């Protein structure tokens, strides 16, 4: 499956210390009514919650890190889920030794500092629907 989009404006911004990374990014996207797009974030977090999709059980298993870490990379996309802008993002986090952990970004990831980039895309709506093969909600 391949979809074509065009690009226009780009947003760059910063979240505040103590913000919930995913919740605040979702607020930004909803405020700007961005229905389709690309999102990238770098920065640092005070704690994190990331998910791993167990393919046998068809459910997310979550891991919490109650410590400061660098956001080496966080990338994702914006689409519509039940008519609302929805961010699906994955994050790579590094500890003080540079060891990395990564997964599906979940609510419960607390910002220390966060610089984000959002690229809205113009074209057909990207809408999430239930996928029988994976039991995920995909576009
Ligand atoms: Zn994911």
Task: Indicate the low-confidence ranges by residue numbers.
Answer: none
Main β-sheet description: 8 strands, antiparallel
Proper CATH architecture = 2-Layer Sandwich
Oligomer kind: single chain
- By CATH reckoning, the class would read Alpha Beta
Helix-residue proportion? under 10%
CATH superfamily: Hypothetical protein, similar to alpha- acetolactate decarboxylase, domain 2
What does this structure look like?
This protein has 139 residues and is mainly beta. The chain has a single domain (21-123), classed as 60s Ribosomal Protein L30, Chain: A (2-Layer Sandwich). Helices cover 8% and strands 58% of the residues. It is built from one helix and ten strands, in the order E-E-H-E-E-E-E-E-E-E-E. A hairpin with a 5-residue loop joins strand 6 and strand 7. The termini are close together. The mean pLDDT is 97. It binds zinc ion. Residues 88, 90, 104 line the site of zinc ion.
């Amino acid at each position: 499956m391949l979809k074509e989009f065009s690009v226009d404006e780009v947003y760059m911004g910063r979240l505040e210390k103590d913000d919930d990374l995913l919740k605040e990014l979702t607020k930004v996207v909803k405020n700007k009514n961005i229905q389709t797009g690309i999102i990238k974030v770098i920065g640092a977090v005070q704690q994190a919650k990331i998910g791993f999709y167990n393919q046998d059980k068809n459910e997310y298993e979550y891991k919490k890190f109650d410590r400061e870490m660098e956001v080496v990379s966080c990338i994702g996309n914006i689409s519509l889920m039940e008519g609302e802008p929805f961010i699906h993002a994955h994050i790579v986090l590094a500890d003080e030794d540079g060891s990395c952990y990564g997964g599906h970004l979940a609510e419960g990831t607390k910002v220390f500092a966060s610089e984000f980039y959002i690229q809205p895309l113009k074209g057909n709506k990207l809408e999430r629907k239930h996928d029988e093969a994976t039991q995920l909600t995909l576009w």
